[in-house]
Amino acid sequence: MIKPVIVQSDNTILLEVDNPQFEDARDSISPFAELEKSPEHIHTYRITPLSLWNAAASGRTYKDIIDNLKVYSRYDIPEVVITTIKEQMLRYGLLKLIALDGNIYLCSEDSILLKEILHNKKMQAYIEAPVDEKSVIIKKMYRGHIKQTLIKMGFPVEDLAGYEEGDPCEIVLQDTIQGGLPFIIRDYQQSAVNAFYRGGGSEGGSGIVVLPCGAGKTIVGIAIMSMLKTETLILVTNTIALRQWKDELIDKTTITPDMIGEFSGEKKEIKPITIATYNILTYRKNKSGPFVHFDIFNKKNWGLIIYDEVHLLPAPVFRMTSEIQSKRRLGLTATLIREDGMETDVFSLIGPKKFDMPWKILEKSQWIAEALCTEVRIDLPEDMRLPYSVSKDRDKFRIASENPLKLDIVGRIIETHQGANILIIGQYISQLKELAERFRLPLITGSTPVSEREDLYKKFKHDELKILVVSKVANFSIDLPDANVAIQVSGTFGSRQEEAQRLGRILRPKKNENRAYFYTIISSNTVEERFAHNRQLFLTEQGYSYIILNQEMFSEKIESGMLCR
Length: 565
Description:
The chain is of the alpha/beta class. The protein folds into four domains: 5-91, no CATH class; 95-160, no CATH class; 178-357, Rossmann fold; 366-560, P-loop containing nucleotide triphosphate hydrolases (Rossmann fold, 3-Layer(aba) Sandwich), CATH 3.40.50. The chain is built from 24 helices and 23 strands.
């Protein structure tokens, strides 16, 4: 059998899609390489230092990776690639932070490396005193700054300096939840908990858990809280997510409502379990002023800080996190992709990836819904072609995104999925208002009051509403378990992160047919088509494929009743 992988000397990996071993090879490559391109027949992955360091932090060795590549590689692996994999993976752990006798030491068995690092001007400001040729005492308050500086130099630090114990808070998981159902931690959720906790020692306690939307990241966080039994600060994307966390904690643990504080635009409560929004943390009265609410990190002796949707963590919160490295830190996310390129800051300040579960494995186990992804390509109307052609690139994207013919396609999809729970998602408010007016549907945007949003989401959950039009405020942390159709009419350029989150809105397991439908409508032969391809990269890496339909093919599918099969 011809093997599906070609490893190239520039650290790229070519993977043949039509090969019988494609899926096995993809699942083998994904943990240590990033998907860059995914045309029909050949997918291109790239091995990067960060992808290798994350693999090393999760327990893989360079030998594991090279052996996996040999299983699927059509030709001999270039020596330069083998050397790169070995060198980069061995870099993780070359430098360690350890605690001893009240001090924190930066140590390395490689005395020459340590000497070279100490000559770096930035590093000199963080050093308290040299000890010997293999260790120095660092200034404790700069523990995070050191890790940031060293990862930029290409040397990720293994932080074994441990954590301060937070004030105790008794947290016990319930045996049963609302409705009298048993509360059971799924096996993969328990694996994620164990990978983070690591017996409570210094090897655990900081890092990222990556799970698809709908797979129970909140449950993982709650289970970790029940093991640590300490006062906890939870940071979330918005007030809706804040209240969902609160509801989950009350439902699934012995924590009572009076123990949970809400720290948002509406309330400023500090309690043993405090849930705060990123928006309130980054609030300041003017652009040059201080962040008014950063003192929340010191209001209590927190034993754990949870960063929900850690891929959205604002840069100012990174800066604060660099100064609280003695606290245990858990990041939760469906994807480590950051559109701002700050993945190394996540690695060094929150922690490396500790657990990652491929989406398709959970789908096969029916822990998340099977998703069918369809891209419908439609033409621009004649009267928009000239304005489009003479516009700047950014304006071209908006013109293509707001193609009025998309409304007809939305209407036909709604007719096809009569009785389904449908989310219509978009980027541009004017487009969403037009959709809401045409189909007489409720609309949720950033300006919709929180109480009204909560009411609409509640009605959707209880089947009083079957269709909602939502802006990008619904991209994250919204629990709508029965939503089974998403229609995406526009998005944020080529955001892979947004594509994954939007699909995630409909992935929670369904009661009857465990299937979800994700439609993207784009204007063909425009910049929107190019951006759509980039948006799909992460999901392609997870094993999803998009059925591409032009307008004629779409109509044929509708008329034959084959669209949702």
